[in-house]
Write a structure and sequence with these properties.
This protein is α+β, with helices and mostly antiparallel strands and 247 residues long. The chain contains six helices and eleven strands. The strands form three sheets. The chain has a six-stranded antiparallel sheet with strand order 1-2-3-4-6-5, with helices on one face. Strands 7-9-10 form a three-stranded antiparallel sheet. Strands 8-11 form a two-stranded antiparallel ribbon.
């Protein structure tokens, strides 16, 4: 039975992370109006934690500035009965992690043309986020470009999602001493070292994703994050052709 949350009907859980979960939801309005959306809810145990609420509000605030075809759009941010939510565009498709996993399971590399189209879509979204759209607004750096945060719709649209740890360029560094945010295999070397990052860091991450799409292998892999970060600092990159002669 669908769960109700104010004007939303929660139809299906789509996924979740450390502080929130995402549902396919139906927005109900007057005169029988309805629209399916993605609804991101902060987990109940974090609703009263100021740091988590601040991060959630930050994600909504940053993403709301980015109205672009290659970025998942934010419709609304609010709270109902003490539950904070972000109402977002619902993309009918799969994330790149799922697409890549299926290709590997079938021993069928993603076609070069398809990989290029995906990379181009992400690059367009990043170019928009990195641009100074209004005077005095710093570029927005995603800091977590990875297959999990890239969605491809059934119609072939490419969308960047999850700006939860995005930062303005002027403040993009460690959140606090010893804490590095992002997925280790896709970090730029400067991000892994906890240094200040700029838009080039996202481009490096996109390059890692692109290499993985073309080769079917993860560029920087290891038994744990420490091993991955050590490989990342050495920066040895093999040719994709070793794994995919069609490149």
């Amino acid at each position: 039975m669908a769960r109700k949350l104010g004007k939303f009907e929660l139809l299906e859980r789509l996924g979740g992370g450390g502080m929130a979960e995402v549902f396919r939801a139906r927005l109900h309005g007057p005169q029988g109006f309805s629209k399916d959306i993605a609804l991101k809810l902060i987990l109940p145990q974090f609703s009263d934690e100021p740091d988590f609420v601040k991060m959630f509000i930050h994600e909504a605030t940053v993403a709301a500035q980015l109205d672009h075809a290659s970025i998942v759009r934010i419709h609304e941010f609010d709270q109902i009965d003490g539950t904070y939510y972000i109402a977002m565009e619902l993309v009918d498709g799969k994330d790149l992690r799922s697409i890549s996993a299926r290709a590997r399971s079938q021993d069928r590399p993603i076609k070069v043309a398809e990989a290029l189209a995906i990379a181009l879509g992400v690059a367009r979204g990043l170019a928009f986020a990195h641009a100074e759209l209004t005077p005095g607004r710093d570029p927005i750096i995603h800091r977590d470009i990875s297959p999990h945060n890239i969605v491809v719709s059934r119609a072939g649209e490419v969308k960047i999602t999850d700006f939860g740890i995005a930062k303005m360029a002027s403040t993009a560094s460690l959140t606090r001493t010893g804490v590095i945010k992002g997925k280790a295999s896709y970090m730029s070397p400067e991000q892994a070292r906890g240094e200040r990052v700029d838009p080039r860091s996202d481009i490096f991450s996109l390059g890692c994703v692109m290499w993985e799409l073309l080769s079917g292998q993860r560029l920087f892999a290891g038994e744990n994050d420490l091993a991955i970060l050590e490989k990342l600092q050495h920066g040895a990159v093999e040719s994709c052709r070793r794994y995919n002669p069609l490149v």
